[in-house]
Write a structure and sequence with these properties.
With 100 residues, this protein is mainly α. The protein is built from four helices and no strands. Helix 3 runs antiparallel to helix 4. The chain is flat and about 60 Å long.
Length: 100
């Protein structure tokens, strides 16, 4: 069973369109499409205005820090001195690259 409560192929192949429609109506899936599209637009704008040698490290570091922070805040993932130090080093490296 999927976390949304939808069981794939529960009604056979004939029930698949109904199940796909139910999946597409899930708020979390719709939110993920929105945020993915927003990230894509930000990436396109960043690549159009900045050198790729700066744009990609910025994207990678912000993604790494954002996912780690969201995991700690919203999903209750643990944090350690090593994880915090890694985030600090990554963000410090980002500042060094961006200021070059």
């Amino acid at each position: 069973m999927i976390a949304s409560g939808i069981v794939i192929f529960d009604e056979g192949f004939l029930g698949l369109p109904k199940q796909i429609l139910q999946l597409l109506m899930q708020p979390m899936l719709l939110a993920s499409f929105f945020f993915y599209g927003l990230a894509m637009l930000i990436w396109f704008r960043l690549v159009a205005t900045q050198p790729i040698s700066i744009a990609y490290p910025v994207l990678a570091t912000i993604t790494f820090a954002g996912i780690s922070g969201a995991g700690m805040l919203f999903l209750g993932e643990g944090y350690s001195v090593q994880k915090i130090a890694g985030l600090v080093f990554a963000l410090t490296g980002l500042l060094l690259i961006a200021s070059a």
